[in-house]
Fold this protein.
Amino acid sequence: MIAIYFKELKGYFSTLTGYLIIALFLLVSGLMTFVMDSDSNLLNYGFADMTPFFMLLPWLFIFLIPAVCMRSFTAERELGTLELLITRPIAAWQLVLGKYLAVFTLVLFALIPTLIYVISIGILGEQSFNLDTGSTISGYLGAILSSLIFIAIAIWCSIIAYNQIVAFLLAAVICFFFYFGFEGIAGYLNTDNTVTALGMKYHYESMARGVIDTRDLIYFISVAAFFYLLGVFTLENSIDKS
């Protein structure tokens, strides 16, 4: 598993892929939070608070993470190296976990430079660094936990798809549904929070506002584990059939 992890990580940073992904993420997030006149603009928000940035993050993740993960298994299949990996003494769960952790590391590398936004807002406030530290920490924790689900979904799509574009589109659609879909269904059916709570948006926004609830933590970890195990099961099935 460790070998797979470092192989994938090296694949991202031995070429321009990893750097371009991080640069694109920082460029778009920087423009949206400081330059463009939008709801996510921190300067227009009027408070020394990172909430607009955290509200923007899921939109970026919905497209960024599927783009990173779309080649995880489809590229291996296209190059014929998946069969080679399968013949080695490595379990399916280790193969999936190695690739999963490599993408998660890339996401962390993309998030770390955004701490500059926190410093900038702290300096620009009427009182220097009069930030709500609790909501900032909670927001970053929510971002990290939500990325766990998006990565698990995207890798599973890479396992079931035989084309990188199909893997990307399928992952983006499922990620979008898991984040916004249940809220839309609840609004259409005019139901209470029971249906809304099945979606990521309900739990993520709670954390972005600075509330850390055990139920939110359990939700993120459970859904991420479900899609990770689904990916392992799907890969094992494809190995057995081959």
In short: DSSP finds 13 helices and no strands in the chain. Residues 2-241 form one domain. The longest helix spans residues 133-160. The chain has a mean pLDDT of 87.
